[in-house]
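Title: Prediction job returns without error message
Component: structure pipeline
Severity: low
Priority: P3
Assignee: unassigned

Description:
Job completed but the reporter wants confirmation the result is attached to the right record. Sequence as submitted:
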Amino acid sequence: MNVFGVGLPEMALILVLALLVFGPKKLPEIGRSLGKALKGFQQASKEFEEEFKKEAQQLEKTLTSPMKASLETEPPKALSPQDANLDGEGPTSDDSGDLVAAQAVDPGVESPSSP
């Protein structure tokens, strides 16, 4: 019997040392807690393996399924000059329809108008 590279004589020696260190009253409690920890580890490992397999199957299904092509139902619209200036940058038109440059107003700087 070879568990984790530890044979029967080594396991017996470890058991005797644990009995000497912890005593006969604490040994069953330690064994129970160790068993619960191993069971939890096995369960987590099994869940991880199942999740990994499920993701691998989903990825394989995605890669092997044929691609579906579809055409756009409506061609994209071209922007008009009014739509292009909605962001407030670039030239704008005044009331007469002439294009004028947009000016940024800094409240801390006085305008060069005459007082």
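Comment from assignee: result matches the submitted record. The CA atoms of residues 21 and 27 lie 9 Å apart.
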